[in-house]
Amino acid sequence: MIKISPPSEARPCAPSVNGLRALFAIGLIAGGLCPTALFASPLLRCQIDQGGSIQTLDVIPAGDPYSVKAIDINGRFRFKAVVIGNAQHVEYINLYVYSQTRRQPVLLHQAKYQAPVTIPGAAPSALTGVNYVYAPELERELQYGCALLEKTP
């Protein structure tokens, strides 16, 4: 319980009501700003363009690369982004593009990035640049670019 003395009884070292309000306001502001800095975690954002259809894929770090599933891109390609690390640090990123054939997916492209850094406000392709991948059958094209960002809660 906080006891606030009336002005006539105020001691020289005791904070005034306005002083307490100011400290409370500063605490609220600091509490609102600090979690952003303390709890920002890495987020890989990939923009995938295939046949005029654009998809955005957001990937958070995982501990097991084998648990990450490839996503279907228009029934023609599969795209897999593996981000290994934790909420504070990314160890590596592996990106895979597969051609979706009748029998099984066929690996067309693999890219590796060791210990990449997050870039605040980065362009959609800041980490990888724009990559063009072509399927051998029917000469289909997939374009993708990824950036490593900071995700705030």
Structural notes for this entry:
This protein has 1 helix and 8 strands; from the N terminus they run αββββββββ. It is mainly beta. It has a 4-stranded antiparallel beta sheet, with no helix packed on it. It has a 4-stranded antiparallel beta sheet with strand order 3-4-5-6, with no helix packed on it. A hairpin with a 2-residue loop joins strand 1 (41-50) and strand 2 (53-59). The longest helix has 22 residues, at 17-38.
Which strand order spans the largest sheet, edge to edge or round the barrel? 2-1-8-7
Question: How would the global form be characterised?
Answer: globular
Q: Give a count of the beta strands, DSSP E runs of length 2 or more.
A: 8
Mean pLDDT: 79
Major sheet details: 4 strands, antiparallel
Oligomer: single chain
Low-confidence stretches: 1-15, 22-37
What does the radius of gyration come to?
25 Å
| Structural domains: how many | 2
Structural class: mainly beta
How far apart lie the N and C ends? 33 Å
Listing every helix as H and every strand as E from the N terminus to the C terminus, the arrangement reads: HEEEEEEEE
State the helical fraction. 10-25%
Number of separate helices:
1
Percent range for β-strand residues: 35-45%
